[in-house]
Design a protein that fits this description.
- The protein has a single domain, classed as Glutaredoxin (3-Layer(aba) Sandwich).
- The protein has 167 residues and is of the alpha+beta class.
- A 7-stranded mixed β-sheet has the order 2-1-5-4-3-8-9.
- The longest helix has 13 residues.
- Helix content is 29%, strand content 29%.
């Protein structure tokens, strides 16, 4: 499992882009993790799945609600990473009113999640390979803090816990 002090793995994530802009077309676009994190300070949080109960009721809403406070503490971007495709992540972002606050990053094949060592097998629950619930602070591509939840818990990866870490 990735640890504080480690560089993020070389991986690609996907984001559903709503508005065409330089270098991005409307729809799913790929982003190199190392390029996107270079020179930036981020919070990256991972969760088991889009539209699932805790993820939709608590995890994403907390980061949307506290996005400005995190930015005031020097965070450039907030990423939500889930083992879903970019279409699902885009729809979930719209549902969660995340635009301009949290980037909804798709890891459809779980390549990034596996490279982090943070995958979990939820096949018995009909979900396949998914991400564990976690949050990390990343500075210039290097993990500074990593909070991984115990199975079934939601206590250390929420926005308030990360705010406390940064304060």
């Amino acid at each position: 499992m990735i640890q504080a002090g480690d560089k993020l793995p070389d991986a690609t994530l996907f984001e559903f882009v709503e508005d065409e802009r330089a270098g991005c077309t409307i729809g799913p676009n790929s982003f190199d993790v190392r390029e996107q994190t270079a020179g930036k300070r981020l919070v990256i949080f991972g969760l088991p799945g889009a539209f699932t109960p805790t993820c939709s009721a608590k995890h994403v809403p907390g980061y949307v609600e506290h996005a400005e406070q995190l930015r005031a503490l020097g965070i450039d971007e907030i990423w939500c990473v889930s083992v879903n495709d970019a279409f699902v992540m885009g729809a979930w972002g719209r549902d969660q009113h995340a635009s301009g606050k949290v980037r909804m990053m798709a890891d459809g094949s779980a390549a990034f999640t596996r490279a982090l060592g943070l995958e979990q097998d939820l096949s018995a629950r009909g979900m396949g390979i998914r991400s564990q619930r976690y949050a990390m602070v990343v500075d210039d591509g290097v993990v500074k803090t990593l909070n991984v939840e115990a199975a079934g818990k939601f206590e250390v990866s929420d926005a308030k816990s990360i705010l406390a870490t940064l304060s």
